């Protein structure tokens, strides 16, 4: 495939001006000598090749597949050409020294000592070839005026090269700064995913993400707001990092100006304090919320706009994933009617407790089992909706008495289980007593099938067991057995009309 003309490597671009100057100056020198020695056009005409070479060199670099390598070749060819021309000019000493030095220096700067030695070799070879071709003549001096011309050219040339090197250094410095910044952005984006994965809910996700961004960009302040799509006046989640509460209030106010804007980052009007605020909307990236990521920059920073939408995208994706994950987790672990853990979750937790006891014999666990008495009667008499309400009522009551470390689950229709992952029978018994003692005061209001409200007392049968009594695998069965024993005893009491237990519900 034919390589097309394109912008050559920066080396070729940087060298173009000094090269044009050097070859034009040498052409001037040639004309001067041609006039002085009277050789006229026989010297000037071939000298015009010097004027052509800078253009050819540029075209070669622009056409080449590897423009940088082509420019290295051009620099070596400079040495070849100048070596030959110095022999044509009969080794006029000042020109040979200054031109030779320029060739060596250029190759040394871009390619090190190796390239410089190659350039020196080519310069000498071309000079020898030129001498062989045109006959060796040595004319070390032409005139004072030509010396001055050559000195002036050399000074201008070396200063130009110095200027070029300086501006290249500055460009490299700027590029390094940009690369470092992009590296920071890249790492911040990469780590943001890990931070989001660790978060247990949306609020921690947002707070941790912003804190994380702030550790990467300590001079910047960050804020994020998520509002309900249907009710834009309700801010569901908000988090800030590196901003004062005053800043946060002002940002909320400023947000009203950017409502309804698309996804492109915007610069908010500069505040009285001269702060530079940038906002990126997460519109269209979140299914249930409208979101905004706001950055307070220490100075005007137009590059920030580009990376801001990257951060906003990443944050929106992480939030959306987390919402989905939490929803799935809830569906997998929770019971739809009561919101308590379901049977599947309880069984996994129980297995973990059993394994824990096997591995660490001192680590006991206890199980408390409850069954609502005569739910069938309630269903039959008041309807299933009323039965559901009773179940939800019992769940609420149990939840009230449980601690965070207790695992409360709806095991079946009207059966509940509380697992105490690191407790012995005392804890389970204490809880059983607490529940039974407070139960007589509990009332549950249900809606009957005929549309009336009815107040029911709660009645439950309870059994508990612990791994300090029986092998871990048998704890659950023992609690179940005890619960049924308790139920039989209560049934007998109701049948006999004895004891404190009143006949449930009806
Ligand atoms: N309303 C409602 N009823 C349910 C639900 N799950 C199970 N049930 C009913 O609850 C009753 C549970 O029956 P059992 O536990 O055997 O007996 P009971 O009526 O509670 O009487 P006890 O012997 O005192 O336990 C059954 O009639 C089930 O149909 C539910 O989610 N909602």
UniProtKB/TrEMBL annotation:
The chain crosses the membrane at residues 12-35, 41-61, 82-110, 116-136, 148-166. Gene3D superfamilies: 3.30.70.270. Signal peptide: none annotated. It catalyses: 2 GTP = 3',3'-c-di-GMP + 2 diphosphate. Residues 363-499 form the GGDEF domain. Keywords: Membrane, Transmembrane, Transmembrane helix. InterPro entries: Diguanylate_Cyclase, GGDEF_dom, MASE2, Nucleotide_cyclase, Rev_trsase/Diguanyl_cyclase. One of its GO terms (molecular function) is diguanylate cyclase activity. CDD domains: GGDEF. Its EC number is 2.7.7.65. PANTHER family: DIGUANYLATE CYCLASE DGCM-RELATED, REGULATORY COMPONENTS OF SENSORY TRANSDUCTION SYSTEM. This is diguanylate cyclase. It comes from Halomonas campaniensis. The lineage of its organism: Bacteria, Pseudomonadati, Pseudomonadota, Gammaproteobacteria, Oceanospirillales.
């Amino acid at each position: 495939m034919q390589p097309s003309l394109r912008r050559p490597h920066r080396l070729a671009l940087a060298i173009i001006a000094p090269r044009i100057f050097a070859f034009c100056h040498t052409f001037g020198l040639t004309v001067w000598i041609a006039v002085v020695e009277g050789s006229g056009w026989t010297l000037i005409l071939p000298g015009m090749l010097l004027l052509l070479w800078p253009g050819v060199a540029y075209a070669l670099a622009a056409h080449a597949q590897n423009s940088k390598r082509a420019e290295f070749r051009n620099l070596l060819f400079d040495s070849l050409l100048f070596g030959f021309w110095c022999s044509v000019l009969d080794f006029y000493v000042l020109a040979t020294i200054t031109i030779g030095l320029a060739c060596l220096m250029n190759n040394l700067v871009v390619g090190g000592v190796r390239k410089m030695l190659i350039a020196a070799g080519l310069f000498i070879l071309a000079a020898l070839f030129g001498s062989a071709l045109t006959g060796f003549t040595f004319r070390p001096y032409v005139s004072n005026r030509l010396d001055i011309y050559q000195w002036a050219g050399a000074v201008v040339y070396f200063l130009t090269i110095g200027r070029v090197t300086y501006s290249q250094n500055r460009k490299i410095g700027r590029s390094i700064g940009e690369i470092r910044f992009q590296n920071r952005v890249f790492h911040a984006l990469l780590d943001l995913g890990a931070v989001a994965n660790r978060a247990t809910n949306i609020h921690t996700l947002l707070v941790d993400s912003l804190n994380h961004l702030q550790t990467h960009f300590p001079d910047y302040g960050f804020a994020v707001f998520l509002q309900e799509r249907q009710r834009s006046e309700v801010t569901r989640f908000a988090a800030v990092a590196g901003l004062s509460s005053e800043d946060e209030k002002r940002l909320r106010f400023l947000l009203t100006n950017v409502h309804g804007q698309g996804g492109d980052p915007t610069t908010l009007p500069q505040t009285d304090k001269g702060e530079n605020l940038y906002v990126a909307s997460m519109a269209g990236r979140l299914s249930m919320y409208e979101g905004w990521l706001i950055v307070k920059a220490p100075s005007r920073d137009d590059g920030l706009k580009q990376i801001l939408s990257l951060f906003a995208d990443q944050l929106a994706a992480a939030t959306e994933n987390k919402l989905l994950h939490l929803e799935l987790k809830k569906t997998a672990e929770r019971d739809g009617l009561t919101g308590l853990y379901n049977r599947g979750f309880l069984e996994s937790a129980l297995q973990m407790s059993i394994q824990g006891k096997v591995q660490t014999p001192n680590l006991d666990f206890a199980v408390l089992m409850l069954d609502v008495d005569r739910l069938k009667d309630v269903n039959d008499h008041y309807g299933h909706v009323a039965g559901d309400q009773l179940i939800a009522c019992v769940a609420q009551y149990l939840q009230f008495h449980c601690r965070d470390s207790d695992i409360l689950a709806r095991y079946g229709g009207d059966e509940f289980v509380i697992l105490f992952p690191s407790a012995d029978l005392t804890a389970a018994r204490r809880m059983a007593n607490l529940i039974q003692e407070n139960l007589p005061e509990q009332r549950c209001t249900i809606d009957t099938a005929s549309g009336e409200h009815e107040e029911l007392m709660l009645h439950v049968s309870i059994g508990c067991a612990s791994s300090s009594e029986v092998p871990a695998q048998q704890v659950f069965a023992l609690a179940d057995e005890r619960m049924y024993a308790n139920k039989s005893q209560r049934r007998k009491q109701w049948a006999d009309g004895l004891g404190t237990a009143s006949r449930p519900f009806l």
